[in-house]
Amino acid sequence: MTESPNTKKPLRPRVAMPYQDPMVRRHNFQEIALGYTREMAMQEASRCLQCKKPQCVTGCPVEVPIKDFIGRIVKGDMDEAYRIIKTASSLPAVCGRICQQEKQCEGKCILGAKGQAIGIGHLERYVADHFIADTPCAQITGGNACAMRHPGLKVACIGSGPSSITAAGYLASRGIAVDVFEALHEPGGILVYGIPAFRLPRDIVAKELNALRQLGVNFLTNCVGGRTVTVNGLLEQGYQAVFIGVGAGLPTLLRVPGDNLIGVFSAKEYLARVNLGQAYAFGNDDTPGLSGKNVTVFGAGNVAIDVACTAVRLGAETVHIVYRRTREEMPARQEEIKHAEEEGVQIELLAAPIQFNGNAEMWLESVSLQRMRLGEADASGRRRPEPVEGACYELKTDLAVVALGSTPNPGLLESTPGFARNEQGYIVVNEQTGETSIPNVFAGGDFVIGAATVILAMGAGRRAASEIARRLLPS
Ligand SMILES: Cc1cc2nc3c(=O)[nH]c(=O)nc-3n(C[C@H](O)[C@H](O)[C@H](O)COP(=O)(O)OP(=O)(O)OC[C@H]3O[C@@H](n4cnc5c(N)ncnc54)[C@H](O)[C@@H]3O)c2cc1C
Ligand code: SF4
């Protein structure tokens, strides 16, 4: 057994997370990971070395005091652990489940070099799931005392994903009224319509949104920023500040012949139909079903894995993920790739689509693939995929889903004159405050940096809200 770098005592392995059996879970939308018990959490926390200079925190984009909250778990003081996390992170139950800890905090944990890093995400999840809030303020901030309301102060958020939820929670818990304008009929952003319930159960997000409602945050759905309401119109109506967190909802398309056939979807549409439209319950619900027999997914990130595992649950006979590079380059979490393969998803590496083929009625029947190999490294340092001459083949496919990323929708920018934009057309903001070139109009999350992560969106929402609060509240 390897020794601990600090104590020279033998290193214990990480307490394993219990999971649903793959053959059971492939037929349901219940959460894959079952969560630690109290005993498991305390045992795992007791492996932490309580380092003098904890490296884990340097890997956390919002600098959660990791060592301190883990120290509280060891003592069994789960409520204090929650309060400590809440000083930095607004959505611990979400982050504990879907943050890429292995690339962030756990990737820096000193134990990772010699053995297994502390299961920081698993511990964060345990603490968040078991905290029972006495007041909505405690749910949002970890503290029980709600701030006095400041009559006359109001802020608008456009979009209701993690960036806006974080901004709204920060401001509402400081007594500022917040109205959130959401284009869809349900708030929550990708947490609700993108990430499937088997990775992020809906009640977790609902709990956060309900706490915000109880603090007075007003969600106005079916309200499209740039059309139903405009940024300048909101300022004229008396909102002292506007935060824009409308995400990156414009899907990147494959642009190969046949991509207009019936049965070719973008990941956003496919997942929204299932998660938001409940396409799996067609008959009882209005959204037509999407149960392809032979499903092919293009892409290699978490979105592609989410689509593939959703297709498995919808009853597909075969599900392939097609990727033009090798497994090492797949950006998805290793754990998610493993889970998908356990459920029967097949990964077709070094292959790229060249065209979709359909029948006379325009229904998709197959996809033609080009075999690839890795050539010289390109400017990004990654080896460039190159076609292998003459090596083409067909894959039977009646449902194809393109999960190649997405970019911000320019609609809102185009409806508001005066926003400074960069060369890629993205909105420019002050890095410290999130303020745009229009005074008192802030922006953050995927809308500013392109499709990224929940924790980065939350960090941006928090930075902007803290600047707004600094300007609006008496010091
Ligand atoms: C399938 C999938 C899986 C993912 N998995 C992970 C993961 O495991 N870990 C991780 O960290 N990240 C993951 N991500 C990325 C993460 O979800 C995003 O980075 C994050 O949600 C961005 O937050 P946001 O607040 O910027 O925007 P979003 O969550 O995109 O929310 C934007 C909201 O604004 C609304 N909107 C858009 N336009 C308008 C308008 N004009 N007016 C009003 N409202 C508007 C949208 O309907 C949406 O509700 C995943 C993304 C997807 C799609
Ligand atoms: S989580 Fe890892 S790096 Fe952080 S204090 Fe514990 S042992 Fe040290």
Radius of gyration (Å): 23 Å
Strand order of the largest sheet: 3-2-1-4-15
The total strand number stands at 15
Task: Name the overall outline.
Answer: globular
Unreliable parts: none
Quaternary status: single chain
Major sheet characteristics: 5 strands, parallel
Straight-line N-to-C gap: 55 Å
Give the cofactors and ligands.
flavin-adenine dinucleotide, iron/sulfur cluster
The structure class reads alpha/beta
Range of helix content:
25-40%
- Rounded mean pLDDT is 92
Total helical segments? 19
Strand content: 15-25%
Write up what this structure looks like:
The mean pLDDT is 92. The chain starts with 21 loop residues before the first helix and ends with a helix. With 475 residues, the chain is of the alpha/beta class. The protein is globular and about 70 Å long. The relative contact order is 0.12. The chain has helices at 22-25, 38-45, 66-74, 78-86, 92-98, 105-108, 111-114, 120-130, 136-141, 162-172, 190-193, 202-214, 231-236, 267-275, 302-313, 334-342, 411-414, 446-449, 454-472, and strands at 154-158, 177-181, 218-220, 241-244, 250-251, 264-266, 294-298, 318-322, 346-348, 351-358, 364-377, 383-396, 399-402, 406-407, 441-443. Helices cover 32% and strands 17% of the residues. The strands form 4 sheets. A 5-stranded parallel sheet has the order 3-2-1-4-15. Strands 6-13-7-8-9 form a 5-stranded parallel sheet. Flavin-adenine dinucleotide binds at residues 98-99, 158-164, 181-184, 189-190, 194-195, 224-226, 245-247, 249, 271, 302-303, 306, 409, 411-412, 445-447, 452-455, 457.
